[in-house]
Write a structure and sequence with these properties.
The complex is a heterotrimer of chains A (273), B (285) and C (423).
Chain A (H helix, E strand, L loop, with lengths): L2 H26 L3 H4 L13 H7 L5 H32 L2 H16 L6 H11 L5 H25 L3 H9 L4 H12 L1 H17 L2 H6 L8 H8 L9 H21 L1 H13 L2
Helix pairs in contact in A: 1-13, 3-13, 4-7, 4-10, 5-7, 7-10, 7-14, 8-9, 10-14, 12-13
Chain B lengths: L1 H25 L2 E2 L9 E2 L3 H7 L2 H32 L6 H13 L2 H11 L6 H10 L12 H26 L3 H9 L4 H29 L3 H6 L11 H11 L3 H34 L1
Antiparallel strand pairs in B: 1-2
Chain C lengths: L1 H23 L7 E7 L1 H17 L4 E7 L4 H13 L7 E5 L3 H6 L12 H5 L3 H4 L3 E2 L2 E2 L2 E4 L4 E5 L10 H13 L5 E4 L6 H13 L16 H15 L12 H9 L3 E6 L2 H6 L10 E4 L11 E2 L3 E5 L6 H11 L2 H11 L6 H7 L8 H9 L1 E2 L7 H18 L3 H18 L6
Parallel strand pairs in C: 1-2, 1-3, 8-9, 11-13
Antiparallel strand pairs in C: 3-12, 4-5, 6-12, 7-9, 7-10
Helix pairs in contact in C: 8-9, 16-17
The chains are: A mainly alpha (273), B mainly alpha (285), C alpha/beta (423).
């Protein structure tokens, strides 16, 4: 490919991925009056009012970011806690049993989970599980478990069996073997899984929408969606934009820092599927 | 060994299995605001209502249209991006990071953004169209075209996801295959058909099936961007089920809609899977 | 490396512990805490009154307002999800008039008869008494009255039109003379506001949506004439095509900038139109919506009122709070500062000859002719059906009669499956 064509290609990709984000940032710094003339110049185009408005709201947007972060941490920890032993067991299973389990996991990973929300809501009602971020991490873990097990077991598969055998000879029990030999070797897969599970739980919407009804417990996606409505008085687009910009920053950072792990996780999950 | 995998399987089985069983049971009951949400057996009225519900079938068509068009579009774009990213060049890491951003951001956040971008008359798209033609595009209030706006938003978000999976597939193709092909006098373009595409078919298959299933369950994007309007032209099955449960308080019918969608989805996925299996065989021949 | 990891584990442990601590430390004191869910705009307007109440009742009752979303439907979604989950965190909910039957049928609300006597009800202006009872029992106490009004330009005409045909005639003339770009702006997007507009217009043409026996009457001829009239507004350019994307703010924006001769909107718009940035300041009058016959003139009732949830454990205290929030002093404050329509006859009387009257006398007339939307538990569904079919007519140029017949059929289906009536 020629250098010039490549440059064109790069700019198209950049434009396509970034322009909606840039438009949001642009809107978030615009005064309400200038929003009615988005292209072209008006006086008093720029303002920080939208941000002041969003940041002074009660509860503050940082509360929602904290909630989402906590939920992400709980979910990631629970998922790993269950998925690591499960993936170890999976590769030791008999062949037929293994491929059966794997197909089941794959099917559940494909399931459009939005269809589960009503029954989960009823569960939350009967057992008083609602409005608790830690308990919400349980269905989240279940939803991300299939992918986690598939990624982790594929990385375990790549570890030469001799390594573990040698450790066994030295008298290490299963827990020790995991800690000393296997987990360090699985580190790339572990970090990929964690980051994917974290992103999933950070972004999840339908279940959070129905499980959380207390304002101070809301996660970011639900809180943002709740902003979407207008009242009879006005349509505060500038404030929406400011909220979405602030809300996007945490994941923006996560993605940029962990892009390698994200890519590896996605591709490994697909590879063995 | 079994002990180690059981906790995970039990949790998965419970969170996925219980709802389905519950839906099957409740879909044969009336459980709505009309009877104080206490389930009463109703001899399958929900199911006959579903079969005669024009809105359900309209949503089936609309959801399938959304899923097929956006996934096809995403697939084409993703293959192009993956082929491009598979070449060595400077600054590749940054491009890759930027291109996965849309996928990583919460859907609701960007759905709100798209609503503003497609807004008429103040959004940029409408402004540009207006300057070119002198008319308003009304992208979000014209039942004939609003669904396209939702497809664009979805394509923007999930193309990177497919591209990465296909990229992984491309990286498994040994370089010497191409060299051998070139020695035999094949052109680069032919190599694409003869080597690249057949080799990445499994990756395309998995991502297409996965994306079709997810797109069929589209909910967040539609709810925030259009709320199913105008004239119900973008309503998806997920949203219809949600409305029945949370707004109309008809749990029985909502469960029936979800089960019905699930059955249709399985049938759809099987069809797609079979088609791909057949084409794969024919390509390899 | 290892120290970093240890630090990370420590951090995570602290995070988990602290969040549990916050949950378990939920305060437990002697003052009764009353939590009320309100849409965001009402949180703003009642803040001062609530502050005053908390000051007067220190250590006894403490009111806390949960600020809901801005959009009516989103507030309802929030309320419903918390009510479905059982232990609702709210003792009272500020409710739109249309939610009442559904909430009552679901068993979520407490009857208010114990606290609000017939004597107290009689002090409320007759129109504002509507929409608070379901099957004869009082469940909701009105905070503000709200009705759909016709806004007209006093600088462009001597008196407002009485009939739909006059409205079109005046509009076309003004448009021809180039005095306004559009004749009449209203709410035409597919949402609840469209149902409100619809109810006013069909009543004006002598039609009905659901009659008092609960029978669906959409396919009446007068309804078809009414919808045809609405559709022609758009077709003939009296109303801009983009009205199908209009909710209240867009209609207000258009009227405020002097683009239109008429607007359908709620009373709040009056105050907005008198602000400095309004191009029609001092040139606006209000009247009841046009109708073919004077007797058919009506205004859709859109009031907000407070209801006590069944799960509340402080119902007496909640009732006390509701009485305070809706007393005549509060009504005066809400009217003079935010332009909210009062509900007590006395407040209307007090303002009758005052300079602060504004449009209050007109509102009173319209209020007496007001009409609630159908009070049935399945209202959300039937309104949704109606909106879809109206939207299909206005945006997709579908045949009026065909769509209305379809709406009739689908509404009947819903009413039957909801067990409201048998065909």
């Amino acid at each position: 490919m020629k250098n010039s064509t490549r440059k064109i290609f790069i700019s198209i990709i950049l434009f396509w991925s970034l322009s909606p984000l840039i438009w949001q940032i642009y809107t978030s710094f615009s005064t309400p009056a200038s929003l009615t003339e988005p292209i072209g110049t008006t006086l008093n185009r720029w303002t920080l009012d939208n941000y002041i408005q969003v940041l002074s709201a009660n509860p503050s947007i940082f509360r929602y970011i904290t909630n989402s972060t906590l939920l992400g941490v709980y979910t990631t920890l629970t998922t790993l806690l269950l998925a690591v032993p499960a993936s170890y067991a999976l590769i030791k299973l008999r062949k037929e049993l293994r491929s059966l389990t794997r197909s089941i996991l794959l099917l559940t990973a494909l399931f459009p989970y939005v269809l589960l929300f009503l029954a989960l809501l009823e569960l939350a009602k009967s057992y008083n599980l609602a409005n608790n971020l830690f308990l919400l991490s349980l269905p989240y873990s279940a939803l991300s478990m299939p992918l986690a097990i598939l990624i982790l077991s594929s990385s375990l598969n790549d570890i030469p069996i001799e390594l573990e055998e040698a450790a066994k000879m030295e008298g290490l029990n299963l827990l020790q073997r995991l800690r000393v030999v296997l987990l360090p070797l699985m580190k790339p897969a572990l970090s990929s899984t964690s980051i994917l599970v974290f992103i999933f739980s950070w972004n999840e919407y339908p279940i959070a929408l129905t499980w959380l009804s207390k304002t101070e417990q809301l996660t970011l996606p639900v809180a943002i969606a709740r902003l979407a409505g207008s009242s009879v008085y006005s349509v505060p687009y500038g404030a929406y934009a400011a909220a979405t910009v602030i809300g996007a920053i945490p994941l923006l950072m996560v993605t940029l820092v962990f892009q390698k792990q994200i890519v590896n996780g996605l591709t490994q999950g697909a590879l063995k599927g | 060994m079994i002990v180690l995998i059981l906790p995970a399987l039990i949790l998965i089985g419970f969170i996925f299995g219980y709802p389905i069983l519950r839906y099957i049971w409740i879909s044969f009951h009336t459980s709505s605001v009309a009877n104080g949400l206490i389930p009463q057996f109703n001899h399958g009225i929900n199911w006959s209502r579903l079969i005669n519900d024009a809105r359900f079938w309209q949503d089936v068509l609309q959801t399938s249209r959304f899923a097929f068009v956006s996934v096809s579009l995403e697939l084409v774009l993703a293959i192009a991006i993956a082929l491009f990213l598979n070449q060595p060049f400077k600054g590749k890491g940054i491009i890759r990071a930027v291109s996965i951003l849309p996928w990583a951001l919460p859907t609701t956040i960007m759905a709100l953004g798209w609503r503003w971008i497609f807004n008429s008359p103040y959004g940029p798209i409408d402004r540009i169209y207006n300057n070119l033609t002198g008319e308003s595009l009304n992208l979000l209030s014209n039942p004939k075209i609003t669904w396209i706006a939702t497809v664009i938003a979805d394509t923007w978000k999930t193309t990177p996801f497919i591209a990465l999976i296909i990229l992984a597939g491309l990286q498994t193709i040994p370089k010497d295959l191409y060299e051998a092909f070139e020695l035999e006098g094949g052109t680069q373009f032919k190599a694409l058909y003869k080597i690249t595409l057949p080799m990445i078919i499994p990756y395309i298959l998995i991502s297409v099936v996965f994306r079709l299933a997810q797109a069929f369950g589209v909910f967040d994007l539609i709810q925030v961007m259009t709320s199913g309007g105008p004239a119900g032209s973008t309503e998806s099955l997920g949203l219809y089920a949600y409305l029945n449960a949370m707004r109309f308080l008809d749990f029985g019918y909502s469960s029936t809609i979800m089960l019905g969608s699930f059955v249709l989805l399985i049938m759809g996925c099987l069809t797609v899977y079979c088609i791909f299996k057949m084409t794969k065989i024919s390509i390899q021949k | 490396m290892t120290s970093l990891r240890k630090y990370l584990y420590g951090l995570i442990a602290v995070l988990i512990m602290s969040s549990w601590l916050i949950v378990s430390l939920a305060a437990d004191q002697n003052t009764v805490k009353v939590n009320i869910l309100m849409p965001a705009p009402f949180d703003d307007s009642t803040r001062e009154i609530i502050r005053q109440f908390n000051k007067e009742n220190q250590r006894k009752i403490e009111v806390n307002i949960t600020r809901g979303p801005r959009e009516t439907e989103a507030v309802s979604d929030l309320a419903i999800s918390s009510l479905i989950l059982g232990k609702s965190p709210y003792d009272a909910i500020l409710m739109d008039v249309t939610w009442l039957p559904k909430y009552v049928e679901a068993g979520w609300l407490t009857p208010l008869d114990e606290w609000f006597t017939t004597n107290e009800i009689s002090k409320v202006e007759e129109g504002a008494q509507r929409g608070n009872t379901y099957k004869g029992v009082l469940y909701r106490w009105p905070l503000v009255a709200d009705i759909g009004m016709l806004y007209w330009r006093t600088d462009l005409m001597k008196k407002p039109p009485d009939t739909p045909y006059e409205l079109v005639e005046i509009s076309k003339e003004l448009q021809k003379e180039g005095k306004v770009k559009y004749g009449y702006v209203w709410q035409g997007r597919q949402y609840e506001g469209l149902s409100c507009v619809f109810l006013e217009v069909i009543t004006g043409f002598g039609g009905e949506w659901i009659d008092e026996n609960g029978k669906v009457q959409l396919n009446e001829n007068s309804n078809i004439r009414a919808v045809t009239w609405m559709n022609n507004l758009i077709k003939e350019g009296v109303t801009p095509k983009s009205v199908t994307n209009f909710s209240e703010p867009e209609a207000l924006q258009s009227f405020k900038s002097g683009n239109a001769a008429f607007m359908r909107n709620w009373p709040y718009a009056w105050k907005e139109l008198q602000k400095a940035d309004s191009k029609v300041k001092g040139k606006v009058g209000v009247s009841t919506m046009v109708a073919e016959n004077k007797e058919n003139k009506t205004a859709t009732l859109g009031s907000w009122g407070l209801a006590i949830t069944k799960s509340s454990i402080h119902q007496n205290e909640v009732a006390e709070v509701i009485k305070y929030l809706t007393n005549e002093d509060s009504q005066r404050k809400l009217y003079s500062e935010f332009g909210y329509t009062p509900t007590a006859s006395k407040v209307f009387n007090d303002y009758a000859d005052s300079e602060e009257n504004g449009i209050l006398n007109n509102l009173r007339i319209s209020l007496s002719a007001s009409k609630p939307r159908p009070m049935v538990a399945a209202y959300a569904q039937i309104s949704d059906i109606l909106q879809r079919h109206l939207s299909a007519i206005f945006t997709d140029s579908k045949d009026v009669k065909k769509e209305i017949y379809k709406a009739q059929e689908n509404t009947e289906k819903v009413m039957i499956s909801a067990g409201i009536y048998k065909k």
